[in-house]
Design a protein that fits this description.
mainly alpha, flat
């Protein structure tokens, strides 16, 4: 480490920010916005994760190599989420209307 440590004030400020973001997440969960709920909650969750990593996990005060590893991890996570969401959103594109889009297809008497 470079010798820098977050102050006690920084810990309390981050804790207060995390509690406010938690309250925002809970409040938004009670409002029905359809698909926009996820679009609003994901940036809040990302912000909370960044605050925890930077302050509580001391990434901000570590060497650049630690920051690069954390950034690479987030990039890899974004790639995996992108692949998963591209699969999930295209599930029903090639069905003939008889099959429900999903992981498993129910067997019928015709099979």
């Amino acid at each position: 480490m470079t010798g820098h440590e977050p102050s006690l004030r920084a810990y309390f400020l981050v804790y207060a920010a995390l509690m406010l973001l938690l309250a925002a997440t809970v409040a938004i969960s009670f409002v029905h916005l359809g698909p926009l709920n996820v679009a609003i909650m994901l940036p809040i969750a990302f912000t909370k994760a960044v605050l925890v990593a930077l302050i509580f996990m001391h990434v901000r005060y570590s060497s650049p190599l630690v920051g690069a590893a954390a950034g690479g991890t987030l990039l890899w996570l974004a790639i995996l989420f992108g692949i998963t969401m591209s699969d999930y959103t295209t599930r029903g594109w090639f069905s003939d209307g008889k099959q429900k889009p999903g992981l498993y297809v129910e067997a019928t008497a015709e099979d």
